[in-house]
Amino acid sequence: MDQQFVLYAIPVSGVLALLYAFMKASWISRQDVGTETMATIAGHIADGALAFLKREYKVLIIFVISVAILLGFANSNRPETSPIIAVSFIVGALCSALAGFFGMRVATKANVRTTNAARTGLADALNIAFSGGLVMGLSVVGLGVLGLSTLFIIYSNMFTDVAEVINLISGFSLGASSIALFARVGGGIYTKAADVGADLAGKVYEGIPEDDPRNPATIADNVGDNVGDVAGMGADLFESYVGSIIGTMVLGAAFVPAFNSMGVSPVAAVMLPLIIAAVGIIVSIVGSFFVKVKEGGNPQHGLNMGEFGASFIMAGLSYVIIDYFLPASWTAEGFTYTSLNVFYAVLIGLASGVLIGLITEYYCSTDNKPVIEIARQSITGAATNIIAGLGTGMMSTGLPIIVLSIAIVASYHFAGLYGIAIAALGMLSVTGIQLAVDAYGPISDNAGGIAEMAALPPEVRERTDKLDAVGNTTAAIGKGFAIGSAALTALALFAAFRQQAHIETLDISKPIIMAGLFIGAMLPFVFSALAMGAVGRAAGDMIREVGRQFNEIPGLREGTATAEFSHCVDISTKAAIREMVLPGMLGVLVPVVVGFTSKEMLGGLLAGVTSSGVLMAIFQSNAGGAWDNAKKRIEGKIEFDGVVYGKGSDTHKAAVVGDTVGDPLKDTSGPSLNILMKLIAVVALVIAPLL
Amino acid sequence: MDQQFVLYAIPVSGVLALLYAFMKASWISRQDVGTETMATIAGHIADGALAFLKREYKVLIIFVISVAILLGFANSNRPETSPIIAVSFIVGALCSALAGFFGMRVATKANVRTTNAARTGLADALNIAFSGGLVMGLSVVGLGVLGLSTLFIIYSNMFTDVAEVINLISGFSLGASSIALFARVGGGIYTKAADVGADLAGKVYEGIPEDDPRNPATIADNVGDNVGDVAGMGADLFESYVGSIIGTMVLGAAFVPAFNSMGVSPVAAVMLPLIIAAVGIIVSIVGSFFVKVKEGGNPQHGLNMGEFGASFIMAGLSYVIIDYFLPASWTAEGFTYTSLNVFYAVLIGLASGVLIGLITEYYCSTDNKPVIEIARQSITGAATNIIAGLGTGMMSTGLPIIVLSIAIVASYHFAGLYGIAIAALGMLSVTGIQLAVDAYGPISDNAGGIAEMAALPPEVRERTDKLDAVGNTTAAIGKGFAIGSAALTALALFAAFRQQAHIETLDISKPIIMAGLFIGAMLPFVFSALAMGAVGRAAGDMIREVGRQFNEIPGLREGTATAEFSHCVDISTKAAIREMVLPGMLGVLVPVVVGFTSKEMLGGLLAGVTSSGVLMAIFQSNAGGAWDNAKKRIEGKIEFDGVVYGKGSDTHKAAVVGDTVGDPLKDTSGPSLNILMKLIAVVALVIAPLL
């Protein structure tokens, strides 16, 4: 195949993804929004979400411009670096922001249309909700591939050294990571401040129902689903996707001399990750056609078909691609690679992602022992519920870490550090459809909220709940991929950093590296504390505002007056913007300060933040998920020793405490850690030539 | 000074400590126990504690013998190892068990006598409680120094190679560590099962008061204070103490050739830690004379005088010792040492211990912002209380880790890895008096419990509460020393392991080491989960037993019948013994399995378990401490926005949930992690020659 043809086909696949996403978005817009009340409510949600994004981006623009100027300056007076890296940074930030914007706009259209479709049946509702998710998924992969490949083509024409080109491109990843961290943290604070605030207001002030259209915080709560779970998650996966592609490219650059000497096109050495990603886009689109449900059927089946079908096809195609573009065997830096072994590494990535997902599901699913045990411990009150949940979260780190460790060792065995990087890429190759399934969850959730607020008949809510529930298993798998790929990507970036910073060995028993390890391991704890504190403070503001409205607005309690939703939206927005700055800056500044103190210490820090970050992420996500489902399990009635416990019982109240504690853990601090560890690794990689 | 004289003076100081402890113990025995009721209650507590220890030691004997046989076999057929290491192991286990036994026996005598003394005044009560603690403290340091130095003298006469001698002695540390882990975990499960069980029984079954002599679990609760906080803590510090001495000796052995070539006595190279420890014993005894309080005075002053006075004297004496025994300057393995720099490392250890203690106190004290904030978050319920406490615990890891990192880098700067080891030793040199202050807390606590059960006038309880409360600051400092020294000791043992296992570099970016790092970092999470789960299950058993007694024993509810205390004691005992096995074995087996897979992976595992262990220990201890004090703060009435919250309010109830959640974190899993990381390092060190 012609090298130039391949080079230019890649951005075309990105454009294709965006075109298809645009088509889907237009189709969604053309669907009926339902009653006037529904339209009004959905309008409030969409406006709130847009208002938040606008304010968030306003703050981020200042950050992006400042960092870009710093990057430009820092790289201007050294022969081996170029200020053009600032351009990559801006483009990366822009693509990430755009992906979040597109996804969220469409999600806030799809939610009400899903509700409306659910008034008549399940099949159309699934179609709309999934299409909404697909727009997000394809925007992410489309902008990722388009942005990266375009920059690569332009820089390749400007610079002859591939290593130089790739170093410049790493700025793209830095841009994506910084936006992702702020979006995840800000969105996470927003959504949980609203959620926790709305829930607790009912407790603090008597007579205010928790999940009721009269509660002024409900709109903010629904906005939160969109800015946190859709836009935040989109930015998160954009970052993983881009990070794993660049990590693999950096390591692949080491193959260029070997490929040149063998007369093989050296483009494949660095472009393979982009080629796989481009093919993954097409596979994701194909997979999306499998997602269908017949009226009365189980939507789970369709989603599984889509996600697993796509993964399966991708595994096969990966073999074809690797076999075609890579030579059968080559040697670089003392390691002998074979194309078959590289393919094995991809398979290891896919398999370990699925395994971690299944383990996650075991610990969080309503049908398994851990969640049932938490439910049982709720009988003796909130304290034992919390102890059981914390214990479950901590215990759930065991198996995933063993799987991850085996994946690291095995993929390295097959293809060295390149193997680790490409294993991460293997996990993420079908991000397009994975993200569609992930984003479909909050859209269905929102659809349910709208059904309730618009006082639609209960069967509508039942249908949207069914859609929401079946997304959980697939979402658990998605979470496994997210955590697994984050860890592997961070390791790949870590290896790339070591290469770029010319560090020979990172002997962990050296005190300076040990100190770095300790500080790195500490960051996820302090970062989580900041995020949780932010949620607590913002939820407090929200509770007071709800109380004020119920006291001051005549008729609100009786349901004859409308709540001032916008005030609550405003509180969440302001709090999220204010509180995202400190943890966000932590992720950017600490590696810079430590790196300029000692580059070896920075190496230790990367090891520490990755190991402790993965653990804290798994612990927090799974504890939160298990608490959530223990509460749901009790709501569905559960029997212990002949006594049945259900909604409204003291046992249920204890379980609600656990659920509320888990909220910021699983939706704010936990998922942010995935980004934190990658961001720190990317910052290290970008500043490596300066150290 | 004559080398032989020094060598034999060391065990004499150990004997001295034991004699003085014996004298104090006899003095305590001669004090009046008070009324017959008091004697009966105290008898129950003492019997329960003894029964637990007997059963625990029965299980441990099997473990010790099995490991000793394995150790003997494994070391029998290699020229460079000797089966005699099994003897060291048994002696170490025995000394640890004896120290725990002595301390606990005296504590269960001192408690009731403290109560009785408190009937008439404060001064005598302080004297008895502190003397009880001092017996524990001196037993620990006396047996540690006596055991180690005796083995050293015997082995030195059998083997000429110092490295060989020290390797054999490391078995002593392994014995101490294994007993410590089981004692800490078992004791921790015992005490918290009883405590949580007694507290929650009041919630689950109506009409059963929480802290009432009629509650059948109260005796078990008081037994728990002794087996967990006295015997468990004693074994813990015995281990730290012995571990840091041996870690320093192993590293000091590298100086022997240099000292020989300079004509300096090589004994000092390895014996310095023991000399410092021996002097520390005398200093601790001297310091104990400062602990006095005048009637109506503040006991805090006396404790401070004792602990800080001893530390201050020790700092000065360390200079004299180091200056006397070490040459002014020498070079070993490419590093140039000076005696002054070694002294600086000791000072760094002392200073960082105090700093970490002060930071701990900041986060946990009732007067500071973090605890007040947790109290404030309790207004909106248990969920926000828990979120705030988790956040505080996580945030509190930040500064201690920075202090620790600076201590690592600075002490290494001054005196290499030896500097890190001797910094840990510096922290622990006055363990005798530190432990006395620590153990004085649970004795006063028990004294208060007895006062309540014996229905003594309220001023007695007030006096014992006053004693208990003032121990808190000093105990916080002690906790700082425990965590700081555990981390430094683990690092010193880690370095010693690397040396003994002949590992050139431990490059953390190598996948096998990275996998070890991940698995190591995961262990504290899984270990904590096991410990917390054990407490939860055992507390559940306790709650059911309390309910059974209230239902089946006529007159118990009315206070006319006596509860079957012994059943509750039995439940806690059985549960603790049963549940300590799995987490205990985890600490012993994982390093063996990983080590025989790959010694480099074991190196990574040590780095992982140390970094994540320190963090989880700080997080759990401080979260638990802060929750506890937030509850106490509310009990002492606190005002927010013009509203006063006190005991019995909903805010208080929310704070009680936090306190209960914190119990197993701060008293079971958290402190066990200190031991876990050292135990794993010691196991690694012991098996190093076999790898």
From TrEMBL, chains A, B:
Its EC number is 7.2.3.1. Belongs to the H(+)-translocating pyrophosphatase (TC 3.A.10) family. K(+)-stimulated subfamily. One of its GO terms (molecular function) is magnesium ion binding. One of its GO terms (biological process) is sodium ion transport. It is a multi-pass membrane protein. The chain crosses the membrane at residues 6-23, 59-76, 82-104, 125-153, 165-183, 241-259, 271-291, 303-322, 342-364, 385-410, 416-437, 476-497, 512-535, 580-598, 604-627. Homodimer. Requires K(+) for maximal activity. This is Putative K(+)-stimulated pyrophosphate-energized sodium pump. Its cofactor is Mg(2+).
